[in-house]
Amino acid sequence: MKPLKGKIALVTGGSRGAGRCIALELGKAGAIVYITGRSVIGNATNQWPGTIDDTASQINASGGKGIAIRCDHTNDSETEAAIAAIRKEQGKLDLLVNNVWGAHDLGVEAKPFWELPLEHWDTMFTAGVRAQLATNHFAIPLLRENHEALIVHTTFWDHNKYTGQFYYDLAKHALVRMAYGLATELKQDNITVLAVSPGFMRTELVLKHHGSDEDHWKESEELRRTESPFYIGRGITALASDPHVMDKNGQVLRVGDLAREYRFTDIDGRYVPPFTL
Are 15 and 50 in contact (CB under 8 A)? Predict the structure, then answer.
């Protein structure tokens, strides 16, 4: 079954991690998936593993259709051009997954606010929150031309608990509030807006930090509570396939709760409960 056949999706920040796996899962479900990001073959950000071209190729190799557009979402003209390309090539957009995030290389420093560099604001808000806001700004006019559409913001949330790092906490909760505000404004257009929170993901950068890989992560005590980035991909695919998704409009949803509701598992067959701090 291809529940998203005929749907056009855009996943921002799709070179690696959650973005890559969300794009792959949407592609397997039949969507035509556009992937944006800065990393392209021969020029990957910080020489990290993965590029938008790799993600598109993996979608195509599995029988789907992936299209990579190089885009720095801190540059409004590039974001606008990416949306314009989708309009020209497809004439519509059904699903926007706002996943771009600029702070992967910072980690989460558990220091008090006054000891953290003010530059963390730019990294997390300019390259994170504002980048997602700008993508919404340019994409919503195209989304509004549909009879229905879905916007998802990836974030981190655990019942409003403090995450332990001031700027990270502020940015992630801003994304939750952005989803809520847009849900209110766009309900009349039958556009559902949600925030989705994964748990502790075994992304490429997390595995690299712990000196492990997908075959050996269970040997690390620190990684035993993790989930693969495909878990959130399956959650967002389930939401995009749900004809009653509007019933969840404006909510922040945890992937473990979605797994229970929609009856999917992680790639190793496990049900991973919602992550708690």
Answer: yes
Closest C-alpha among 263, 195, 266 to residue 229:
266
Mention every residue, 6+ apart, whose C-beta is less than 8 A from residue 166.
Answer: 112, 113, 116
Structure tokens at 25: 């899962």
d(CA 14, CA 37): 6
CA angle 89, 93, 99 (to 5 degrees): 110
Q: What is the pTM of this model?
A: 0.95
Instruction: Print burial letters for 216-247: b (CB count within 10 Å at least 16), e (below 16).
Output: ebeeeeebeebbbbbbbbbbbbbbbbbeebbe
Q: How far apart are CA 163 and CA 174, in angstroms?
A: 13
Amino acid identity for residue 116 in this structure: L
Instruction: Encode pLDDT of 166-192 as tens digits.
Output: 999 999 999 999 999 999 999 999 999
Find out whether 233 and 18 touch, Cβ atoms under 8 Å. yes
Distance in angstroms (rounded) separating the CA atoms of residues 150 and 240:
7
Identity of residue 27: G
Q: Where are the beta strands (DSSP E) in the chain?
A: 8-12, 32-37, 65-70, 95-98, 149-154, 191-197, 252-254
Least confident range of 145-154, 201-210, 252-261: 201-210
Beta-bridge mates of residue 195: 153, 252
Q: Which of 65, 7, 66, 8 is nearest to 36 (CA)?
A: 66
pLDDT in tens, 215-261: 889 888 889 889 999 999 999 999 999 999 999 999 999 999 999 99
Task: Give CA–CA dist 237/251, Å, rounded.
Answer: 16
The residue written with tokens 């749907």 in the block is: 7
